[in-house]
């Protein structure tokens, strides 16, 4: 199997690649209960010799320190981020991250993945840290990228100082991830999305694999919204409903990027075909309202693969914000840009019908959920555009309900 990312190319036979991934992941899952933590830092001594580093984005100068506050030693960052030493991971492996945070103005943390050559992979797992006046415990589960060999954690300042202590990373299994996801969902209004009853008619092989197994490989193509959707780790929800099927999810994304990018320069090969999907899911908010570009990607995929395709409308970022951004940056006359925006939903439905691909209206499902929620939109967001771990659970459970049989959906 040939696996290619923007950072490099990996070549192996399909059997050897699948067997290697299975052995690595099984080793982690089967020993998670007894294995020593992969990372455990209480910061009682200088963290620099252990590989913790202070960094910043772009030309920004970092501002942070190892210090003592409230009777404890911790890392504090005012600008930039603290980064952990590299943590060895297995492709598709699951990891539990727990830490203490003091974030009066909030903050962020992310799991960043690196391939065998040490190149940073675009698909990361970014999340918010709630603003709170006291120390809080943050728990998250992450899935390693299909090409990942190492992971680093980054703790990022937002509008004020962020302090971090007692960082723990350990391997875990799908059952532990499911418990974490269910615990998160238990604190949220239930997702009641009701998909159309005929939604599977163009996904017969996908449904057959879910029912009978042994496996289903899903490639998620798109932008940071698709990245967040993938990071819901929705496959553990589906595996509960379809226990005969082992699901692998490959996140193949680029921030702010839609099919107008993927259609060019043979990128369909490196971003989709190289991962040999059984199901391709195309989504996000960054297609520039360009259905011709989406059509081009679909046809290029079909020229090189017999995988089934599910198209998703955008979600999370408020539609008005998406429209205003397009009007501001498209370079088109306002009347033409407005016409593209207003006609896009109809054109997307017509495209799906013409190309015989399924369409999941994530935009409507997300908007209906947020409108019915008693809490504010900000409760589900880490910034004005992206979901936090609560918002990701909403996205994951919309996908879960799409794939659940009608008699099982609750």
List keywords for this structure.
6-stranded antiparallel β-sheet; globular; disordered N terminus; Jelly Rolls; 12 helices; about 400 residues; 19 strands
Give your account of this protein's structure.
The structure is a single chain. The protein has 410 residues and is α+β, with helices and mostly antiparallel strands. It has two domains: 162 residues, Sandwich (Jelly Rolls); 208 residues, SGNH hydrolase (Rossmann fold), CATH 3.40.50. It has twelve helices and 19 strands. Strands 3, 5, 6, 9, 12 and 14 form a six-stranded antiparallel beta sheet that branches. Strands 4, 7, 8, 10, 11 and 13 form a six-stranded antiparallel beta sheet that branches. It has a five-stranded parallel beta sheet with strand order 16-15-17-18-19, with helices on both faces. A hairpin with a 2-residue loop joins strand 5 and strand 6. Helix 8 packs parallel to helix 10. The chain is globular. The two termini are 39 Å apart. The N terminus is likely disordered.
